What does this fold into?
Amino acid sequence: MLSIKNYVRAQSLDEAYALCQKKSSAVLGGMLWLKMQRGGVDTAIDLSDLGLDKIEETESEYRLGAMVTLRELEKHPGLDALTQGAMAESVRHIVGVQFRNLATVGGSVFGRFGFSDVLTMLLSLEARVALHGAGIMSLEDFAASGIRRDILTHVIIPKTPRKCVYLSQRNISTDFPVLTCALSRSDEGVLCAVGARPGRAVCLRGDVAKLADGLVFGSNTRASADYRREICRVLIRRGLERLEG
Amino acid sequence: MEIRLTLNGKKLAADVAADELLIDFLRAHGCLSVKRGCESSNCGLCTVLMDEKPVLSCSVLAARANGKSVYTLEGLQAEAEDFVGFIADQGAEQCGFCNPGFVMNTIALLRENPDPTDDEIRAFLAGNLCRCSGYEGQLRGIRAYLDSRKEARNG
Ligand SMILES: Cc1cc2nc3c(=O)[nH]c(=O)nc-3n(C[C@H](O)[C@H](O)[C@H](O)COP(=O)(O)OP(=O)(O)OC[C@H]3O[C@@H](n4cnc5c(N)ncnc54)[C@H](O)[C@@H]3O)c2cc1C
Ligand code: FES
Ligand code: FES
It folds into this structure.
């Protein structure tokens, strides 16, 4: 169980950023993942007072505040229309409604979890992230980076017209996925993100079925590397069929 | 630190530790319907409503309830009474330990979607684990309640 010495509701991003430079501090998203960590945190930094709990829409993009919950992603009509339901499909298997009312976009993206449905889906939309210290960068670059002590403020989704499909494979409903696969097709071609390999999601562009054969898969308690490779082939084939249909 | 919240409709101020969990705070304030199951955000036994939304009280800091309204089953007895009999009639409760969390989330479901389909019920309640019943009885109970409500409405 996580122990916390001090709880601070940051009153500005500068304050939160300064506090999070200390190794013994932790930024609180929904706290669901953090809570599973052993050990202690000197200062828990709560971003709840910083207005980061909104989904804002401009002419060209959606800006998701870091404290927006996964349930809000699931229920948002604009994101639903933009992704033809794929956004909701990507989160609806994550534990339960009560969990998704707590888990945040910021924690899900900053954590860059290998198993993440959220990361896989957002990569397929060519999202960008806004960090208070490091500035704006593509989610793809952020996912591959080792950036640690920063505050993720927003995830930015361009409103590029795309056809989207989200598919995942689980051993049992509400468990962690054994493979995640998000495909999108825009004027620029097909983009496919594959996660839970079990490594972090990566993006493929072009002949995605062929490129996926070159991906590295691994084994863990949920599935073997060979099983994942086979499932990946199947999910990509189904996804491409649905993009065509 | 001091927090102020509304618990089951009553205003309350209390001192909490930085890492005190909402579940412990609620149980210490007499809300013993709130059950601790997995404590790893998986089972839904600890479900309460915070600002109307169902959340896992084992995974929320009490400090985060500051300024919010929290409801447990103790405060929603009348609303629960409407349908719990239908669930009991189906033999859907055995040990009953999962029941308070299940009832709280069903209240949240029916407030958000008063006339859900079976698939919508299953999806909304997927985060409420029951080690005894197999879920079908619970689904039948909610369905029977909804049907009886519809019948009463249609005369
Ligand atoms: C039991 C369980 C089952 C799960 N199943 C799935 C699943 O099937 N699929 C899936 O995709 N995910 C799953 N997850 C992950 C979950 O969806 C969230 O991604 C995860 O809990 C992190 O979100 P959070 O808001 O709880 O973040 P936290 O736990 O609060 O934070 C996670 C990390 O990010 C940091 N952080 C949080 N917010 C910020 C910010 N704004 N800026 C900088 N750093 C920040 C924290 O310090 C911490 O290091 C599961 C998690 C649990 C606990
Ligand atoms: S005790 Fe909270 S989810 Fe299991
Ligand atoms: S009735 Fe025993 S856990 Fe559900």
